[in-house]
Amino acid sequence: MIEFKNVTKVYPNKAVGVEDISFHIKPGEFVSLVGRSGAGKSTIIKLLIGEERVTKGRVLFGSYEVNKLSMKEFPQLRRQIGIVFQDFRLLPNKTAYENVAFALEVGGRPQSEIEEFVPQVLDMVGLSSKRSAFPHQLSGGEKQRVGIARAMIHHPAVIIADEPTGNLDEFNSEDIIKLLVRINELGTTVILATHDKNVVDNLNRRVISVVDGRIARDEAKGKYIIM
Protein backbone atom coordinates (compact mmCIF):
# COMPACT_ATOMS: atom_id res chain seq x y z
CA MET A 1 0.00 0.00 0.00
CA ILE A 2 2.68 2.50 1.06
CA GLU A 3 6.30 2.34 0.02
CA PHE A 4 9.27 4.66 0.49
CA LYS A 5 12.13 3.74 -1.88
CA ASN A 6 15.54 5.24 -1.05
CA VAL A 7 13.92 8.55 -0.12
CA THR A 8 15.95 11.63 0.75
CA LYS A 9 14.53 15.04 1.58
CA VAL A 10 16.83 18.08 1.75
CA TYR A 11 15.17 21.40 2.61
CA PRO A 12 16.14 24.71 0.93
CA ASN A 13 18.25 25.66 3.96
CA LYS A 14 20.28 22.45 3.35
CA ALA A 15 18.81 20.73 6.43
CA VAL A 16 18.31 17.01 5.82
CA GLY A 17 14.83 15.81 6.80
CA VAL A 18 15.36 12.14 5.93
CA GLU A 19 18.22 10.38 4.17
CA ASP A 20 17.99 7.27 2.01
CA ILE A 21 15.09 5.65 3.86
CA SER A 22 13.16 2.65 2.59
CA PHE A 23 10.17 0.82 4.08
CA HIS A 24 6.76 -0.46 3.08
CA ILE A 25 3.46 -0.69 4.93
CA LYS A 26 0.89 -3.32 3.99
CA PRO A 27 -2.89 -2.74 3.95
CA GLY A 28 -4.38 -3.20 7.41
CA GLU A 29 -1.16 -2.75 9.36
CA PHE A 30 -0.86 -0.70 12.56
CA VAL A 31 2.56 0.97 12.58
CA SER A 32 4.07 3.22 15.25
CA LEU A 33 6.56 5.77 13.91
CA VAL A 34 8.82 6.86 16.75
CA GLY A 35 11.80 9.14 17.24
CA ARG A 36 12.92 12.26 19.02
CA SER A 37 11.73 15.69 17.93
CA GLY A 38 13.49 16.55 14.67
CA ALA A 39 14.33 12.93 13.88
CA GLY A 40 12.31 12.94 10.65
CA LYS A 41 8.85 11.64 11.61
CA SER A 42 7.07 14.79 10.45
CA THR A 43 9.04 14.82 7.21
CA ILE A 44 7.92 11.26 6.47
CA ILE A 45 4.28 12.22 7.04
CA LYS A 46 4.57 15.36 4.89
CA LEU A 47 6.17 13.39 2.06
CA LEU A 48 3.42 10.78 2.22
CA ILE A 49 0.58 13.30 1.98
CA GLY A 50 2.38 15.41 -0.63
CA GLU A 51 2.92 18.42 1.62
CA GLU A 52 6.62 18.13 0.77
CA ARG A 53 8.31 16.68 -2.31
CA VAL A 54 11.20 14.24 -2.21
CA THR A 55 14.68 15.37 -3.23
CA LYS A 56 15.57 11.85 -4.29
CA GLY A 57 13.75 8.52 -4.33
CA ARG A 58 10.10 7.51 -4.66
CA VAL A 59 7.03 7.62 -2.42
CA LEU A 60 4.25 5.26 -3.50
CA PHE A 61 0.71 5.12 -2.18
CA GLY A 62 -1.30 2.40 -3.87
CA SER A 63 -1.30 3.25 -7.57
CA TYR A 64 -0.05 6.80 -6.94
CA GLU A 65 3.54 7.97 -7.11
CA VAL A 66 3.13 10.92 -4.78
CA ASN A 67 6.06 12.94 -6.09
CA LYS A 68 4.66 12.92 -9.63
CA LEU A 69 1.07 13.93 -8.84
CA SER A 70 -0.26 17.16 -10.28
CA MET A 71 -2.11 19.65 -8.08
CA LYS A 72 -5.39 18.43 -9.60
CA GLU A 73 -4.63 14.85 -8.58
CA PHE A 74 -3.76 15.56 -4.95
CA PRO A 75 -7.39 15.77 -3.72
CA GLN A 76 -7.95 12.17 -4.92
CA LEU A 77 -4.95 11.02 -2.88
CA ARG A 78 -5.84 12.96 0.24
CA ARG A 79 -9.39 11.62 0.34
CA GLN A 80 -7.78 8.24 0.99
CA ILE A 81 -5.81 9.57 3.99
CA GLY A 82 -7.36 10.80 7.23
CA ILE A 83 -5.18 12.85 9.58
CA VAL A 84 -5.58 13.21 13.35
CA PHE A 85 -3.67 16.11 14.90
CA GLN A 86 -2.19 16.62 18.35
CA ASP A 87 -3.87 20.03 18.71
CA PHE A 88 -7.28 18.81 17.41
CA ARG A 89 -7.67 21.70 14.88
CA LEU A 90 -11.42 21.96 15.39
CA LEU A 91 -13.36 24.99 14.19
CA PRO A 92 -14.32 26.77 17.44
CA ASN A 93 -17.62 28.19 16.18
CA LYS A 94 -18.93 24.88 14.89
CA THR A 95 -20.47 22.01 16.85
CA ALA A 96 -19.03 18.50 16.86
CA TYR A 97 -21.52 17.55 14.14
CA GLU A 98 -20.67 20.65 12.08
CA ASN A 99 -16.91 20.10 12.39
CA VAL A 100 -17.26 16.61 10.93
CA ALA A 101 -19.81 17.70 8.33
CA PHE A 102 -17.52 20.50 7.17
CA ALA A 103 -15.02 17.93 5.89
CA LEU A 104 -17.71 16.65 3.52
CA GLU A 105 -19.05 20.09 2.63
CA VAL A 106 -15.69 21.32 1.34
CA GLY A 107 -15.59 18.23 -0.88
CA GLY A 108 -18.94 19.15 -2.38
CA ARG A 109 -20.78 16.11 -1.02
CA PRO A 110 -24.61 16.32 -1.10
CA GLN A 111 -26.58 17.11 2.05
CA SER A 112 -28.18 13.66 1.99
CA GLU A 113 -24.75 12.02 2.37
CA ILE A 114 -23.78 14.42 5.14
CA GLU A 115 -26.94 13.63 7.07
CA GLU A 116 -26.30 9.91 6.64
CA PHE A 117 -22.56 9.66 7.30
CA VAL A 118 -21.90 12.21 10.06
CA PRO A 119 -24.14 10.53 12.68
CA GLN A 120 -22.54 7.18 11.79
CA VAL A 121 -18.97 8.32 12.51
CA LEU A 122 -19.99 10.24 15.64
CA ASP A 123 -21.60 7.06 16.90
CA MET A 124 -18.47 5.08 16.03
CA VAL A 125 -16.32 7.33 18.24
CA GLY A 126 -18.92 7.38 21.03
CA LEU A 127 -20.03 11.00 20.65
CA SER A 128 -23.63 10.75 19.50
CA SER A 129 -24.76 12.56 22.64
CA LYS A 130 -22.25 15.39 22.04
CA ARG A 131 -23.16 16.20 18.46
CA SER A 132 -24.47 19.69 19.39
CA ALA A 133 -21.56 20.57 21.69
CA PHE A 134 -19.00 23.21 20.71
CA PRO A 135 -15.27 22.52 21.17
CA HIS A 136 -15.07 24.62 24.35
CA GLN A 137 -17.74 22.36 25.86
CA LEU A 138 -15.75 19.19 25.19
CA SER A 139 -12.93 17.55 27.14
CA GLY A 140 -9.57 16.97 25.48
CA GLY A 141 -10.42 13.33 24.87
CA GLU A 142 -13.78 14.27 23.34
CA LYS A 143 -12.12 16.84 21.07
CA GLN A 144 -9.74 14.18 19.83
CA ARG A 145 -12.66 11.83 19.19
CA VAL A 146 -14.22 14.53 17.00
CA GLY A 147 -10.87 14.77 15.23
CA ILE A 148 -10.89 11.03 14.61
CA ALA A 149 -14.48 11.16 13.36
CA ARG A 150 -13.52 13.94 10.95
CA ALA A 151 -10.53 11.90 9.75
CA MET A 152 -12.77 8.86 9.15
CA ILE A 153 -15.60 10.65 7.36
CA HIS A 154 -14.27 9.88 3.86
CA HIS A 155 -13.73 6.20 4.80
CA PRO A 156 -9.99 6.54 4.12
CA ALA A 157 -7.65 3.64 3.50
CA VAL A 158 -5.14 5.10 5.96
CA ILE A 159 -5.34 7.07 9.20
CA ILE A 160 -2.25 9.07 10.17
CA ALA A 161 -2.38 9.99 13.86
CA ASP A 162 0.28 12.63 14.53
CA GLU A 163 0.94 12.70 18.31
CA PRO A 164 -2.80 12.19 19.01
CA THR A 165 -2.25 11.76 22.76
CA GLY A 166 0.22 14.62 23.17
CA ASN A 167 -2.32 16.92 24.86
CA LEU A 168 -4.19 14.24 26.80
CA ASP A 169 -3.90 12.69 30.23
CA GLU A 170 -3.15 8.99 30.65
CA PHE A 171 -6.82 7.95 30.91
CA ASN A 172 -7.89 9.77 27.75
CA SER A 173 -4.74 8.66 25.94
CA GLU A 174 -5.61 5.04 26.58
CA ASP A 175 -9.14 5.56 25.24
CA ILE A 176 -7.90 7.23 22.05
CA ILE A 177 -5.40 4.43 21.36
CA LYS A 178 -8.12 1.82 21.94
CA LEU A 179 -10.29 3.65 19.41
CA LEU A 180 -7.46 3.68 16.85
CA VAL A 181 -6.91 -0.05 17.42
CA ARG A 182 -10.62 -0.70 16.85
CA ILE A 183 -10.53 1.33 13.63
CA ASN A 184 -7.51 -0.71 12.54
CA GLU A 185 -9.30 -3.97 13.35
CA LEU A 186 -12.10 -2.86 11.01
CA GLY A 187 -9.56 -2.77 8.17
CA THR A 188 -8.10 0.75 8.13
CA THR A 189 -4.31 1.07 8.06
CA VAL A 190 -3.07 3.19 10.98
CA ILE A 191 0.21 5.08 11.19
CA LEU A 192 0.81 6.44 14.68
CA ALA A 193 3.56 9.03 15.12
CA THR A 194 4.26 9.38 18.82
CA HIS A 195 6.72 10.15 21.61
CA ASP A 196 4.66 8.15 24.12
CA LYS A 197 6.75 5.16 25.19
CA ASN A 198 3.96 3.57 27.23
CA VAL A 199 1.56 3.67 24.30
CA VAL A 200 4.05 2.05 21.92
CA ASP A 201 5.20 -0.61 24.38
CA ASN A 202 1.63 -1.59 25.29
CA LEU A 203 0.52 -1.87 21.66
CA ASN A 204 3.05 -4.58 20.81
CA ARG A 205 2.66 -3.77 17.13
CA ARG A 206 5.16 -2.88 14.40
CA VAL A 207 7.52 -0.04 15.31
CA ILE A 208 9.66 1.99 12.89
CA SER A 209 12.30 3.99 14.80
CA VAL A 210 13.75 7.10 13.14
CA VAL A 211 17.09 8.53 14.28
CA ASP A 212 18.72 11.55 12.60
CA GLY A 213 16.66 11.11 9.45
CA ARG A 214 17.39 7.40 9.02
CA ILE A 215 15.52 4.20 9.85
CA ALA A 216 17.31 2.80 12.89
CA ARG A 217 14.91 -0.10 13.60
CA ASP A 218 11.89 -1.72 11.98
CA GLU A 219 10.45 -4.45 14.20
CA ALA A 220 7.23 -6.42 13.78
CA LYS A 221 6.45 -6.38 17.51
CA GLY A 222 8.66 -3.57 18.66
CA LYS A 223 9.18 -1.36 21.65
CA TYR A 224 9.99 2.31 22.01
CA ILE A 225 13.80 2.19 21.81
CA ILE A 226 15.68 5.32 20.76
CA MET A 227 19.49 5.22 20.94
From TrEMBL:
Q: Any one Gene Ontology biological process term?
A: cell division
Which controlled-vocabulary keywords does the entry list?
ATP-binding, Cell cycle, Cell division, Cell membrane, Membrane, Nucleotide-binding
Pfam families recorded for this chain? ABC_tran
Subcellular location(s) of the protein: Cell membrane
Q: Which SUPFAM superfamilies match?
A: P-loop containing nucleoside triphosphate hydrolases
Please give the PROSITE patterns that the UniProt record associates with this protein.
ABC_TRANSPORTER_1 (PS00211), ABC_TRANSPORTER_2 (PS50893)
Cleavable signal peptide: none
In terms of Gene3D superfamilies, this protein maps to: P-loop containing nucleotide triphosphate hydrolases (3.40.50.300)
- Name the membrane topology term: Peripheral membrane protein
Record bears the keyword Secreted: no
Ranges for the ABC transporter domain? 2-226
Q: Where mainly found?
A: membrane
Gene Ontology molecular-function annotations: ATP binding; ATP hydrolysis activity; transmembrane transporter activity
User: Does this UniProt record's set of keywords contain Membrane?
Assistant: yes
Checking SMART domains in the record gives: AAA
**Which terms in the GO cellular component ontology are assigned?**
plasma membrane
How this chain assembles, per its entry, is: Homodimer. Forms a membrane-associated complex with FtsX.
**Which PANTHER family does the entry link to?**
CELL DIVISION ATP-BINDING PROTEIN FTSE, IMPORT ATP-BINDING PROTEIN
The UniProt similarity line reads: Belongs to the ABC transporter superfamily.
Described purpose of this protein according to its UniProt entry:
Part of the ABC transporter FtsEX involved in cellular division.
Record's protein name = Cell division ATP-binding protein FtsE
In which organism is this protein found? Candidatus Harrisonbacteria bacterium CG10_big_fil_rev_8_21_14_0_10_49_15
